[in-house]
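Hi,

I'm pasting everything inline rather than attaching a file, because the server keeps stripping attachments. The sequence lines come first, and each chain or strand is labelled.
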Amino acid sequence: MTEEYELRSAETHIEVHKFFPGSIVLVTAIALVLQSTARVYFPKLEMLDLPLLVTVYFGLSRRNPSTGLLLGTVIGLLQDALSGPTVPLGFYGIAKTIVGYLASSIGARLDTEHPAARFALTFGFFVLQQAVLVLTRRLLLAQPELWFNTHLAVAATVNALVGTALFLALDRLRR
Amino acid sequence: MAVIASRHRSLALLGGVLLAQVLLLAVQIKRDSRGRLLRVWVVTATSPFERSGAWGVGRVRGVWDHYFALRSTSRENEALRVENDALKLTIAQLQTKAAEADRLAVLLNFRQAHAEVPMVGARVIAASPGNASQTIEIDRGERDGIKRNMAVITPDGAVGKVIEAYRDAAQVLLLTDKDSGAGAMLVGSRVQSPVGGTGDPLLVMKYVPTDEDVKVGEKLVTSGMDKIFPRDIPLGTVAEVKPGNPFKQIRVQPAAKMDRLETVIVLLTQTPLEFKTETPNGTGTQPSDANAGQATAKSEKP
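And the predicted assembly:
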């Protein structure tokens, strides 16, 4: 991932944020490791999807669809690799590629700095990811999967809340 | 114009990346290949950090459990508690170590009770980073003799099986995973039937004919028919029975505490062991008699 500064004058002059070198890689690695280890001790954290939050945050901030989708692809494939052989490579990869692309595309058109906008977008991206995961399961893997239930609605809300707070913390990594 | 071209480029890239991943999925399904190379790299790269993370999270939790969480129970002593902060922190650390020692002692007792059976204790260092699977990662791997399809248990009961072994780590598919299953037997009636996961905390016993008498609270043990788990390892307790046609709908509470796995045992054998399925306090972990201090199985080389 290149971290060069970019200003898209054709897209209503929305600023593209630059981060300290290595911060995207470091935050991604921490998110994946935390996602794996924290669940051992705090089972209720299973509803939190830190890799998704990182994908959404950097997508919204970087505002470059190409880098957004590639970051989503890498994070998704790493999540697949850590999920064990029952989860084929590409399962989370496809979902997070789409989320990364859409997050950076939306970020290039709208002001996504306000906490309310971030809450709504994170909620929406969680639901979108779930929809893509269900479609992948049903259409590509021919396995049954529930579309949506109360647990997922709660999980979407929790992720949106945590994401809003996390994004404020990650804003400090901007140069 | 340049923006349109750029948008087309990113759309083309999106299409290409998605297509590549769909093909990747298809290849894995067709060839039953699971991308082992990438998984080896990723697990090898992350497991040292997961070990450190597990250690760090365990320490934080220990301090939280034994210090901060107690604050609300005695607000009237707040002033005194503040004075004793440093001492309580020390106590908390000692208690965490004591709790860990207790867990290890349980494992050690189990290990001594089945001294002839090759087995290895392992610490859980990570869990699946998504809800698509129910797996855990342990800090022992091929170097410790662990191979695919070895049974993983705790003194409480069966946990799952090894689905991938790496050099210094291994991934374990929990019984609660949708793709998981084990041969099971009702202790009372000796009716045998597979038990599988659904992704929920409870297991499902699949093919018990509707005319069989199954009661809530009845114990299940492994039948050994799956060639993974040895016979008579505690598997769970019947939690719910509903009539069905032609099979009953039976849900089973796992014997092992699947949401609190910190240390597990990997059996490096599939030879039958002798387990007692129930003790007075219901833990079901002790050998059945004095002679059972030694497992009945003959050892296998790991």
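The beta strands of chain A are 7-8, 14-15.

If the labels don't parse on your end, tell me and I'll reformat.
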